[in-house]
Design a protein that fits this description.
Length: about 280
Amino acid sequence: MLTVRAPATSANLGSGFDVFGVALGTPADVIRVERAPETTISITGAGSEYIPEDPAKNTVGAVADALDAPARIRIDKGVRPSSGLGSSAASAAAAAVALNALYDRGRSREELVPVAAEGEALVSGEAHADNVAPALLGGFTVVTEDGVTQVDASVPVVACLPDISVSTRDARGVVPDSALMDDVVTTVGNAATLTVGMTRDDPDLVGSGMNDDIVTPERTKLITGYDQVREAALEAGATGVTVSGAGPGILAVCRRRDRRAIASAMVDAFDAVGVESRAYQTAIG
Ligand code: HSE
């Protein structure tokens, strides 16, 4: 039997919509696999009751198919579905690594990115790699049509997860069809600043480069209390705050010494608008 852990991830980081992604230290999914004549899946842990165990409907089943690697697969979910923290990507990435090793398929981590993205396509309808790439490669990733670029970044963050649900379909439905050139220029500048910040492990540059006036303002309308939580995190020392992936999770970048205060400020701010939440004090890495 083989056991593989794959981390939560956060896509977009504001200015890098559908391009940027980061791996987070916690939470994580753990997958155990053993060879079997046909694939079966059992799931425990966070939100497991919402995930189909039928291999034809499960992201991990799609990965097993793509690698021609039937197995008895047990998934322990640490990353709650519909959180904005790459729940299906964590399972897909862990399954890709585990089944690749179990059947000696010899694929590199980079070669497993499109395999795991196929699993993502099953649940989201589109083969986004902006969560599976960091789940497989770690650090900060830039996904384009030409491939993936990875940087080993290490920046403290708080990922705050409210107990509300935002479907990826709804979150994609509010993405504007076009953007003003002024907003595009600002966003490109921010994305470049953020990228430099990642290469320097600099929370100030990363935080200031997360602002985005194109997609994020539309998505924040779907998250009860977003403005209050963002303000509270900034007051407690966050260098930047944005929606994690398609939401409803909210990501705050910070210095290590401010992490605890930011986590508590974000949870309190959600609480004040009647929303329960949980904050992970973690880091990109
Ligand atoms: N980039 C994707 C989005 C991530 O924001 O919709 C979620 O799949």
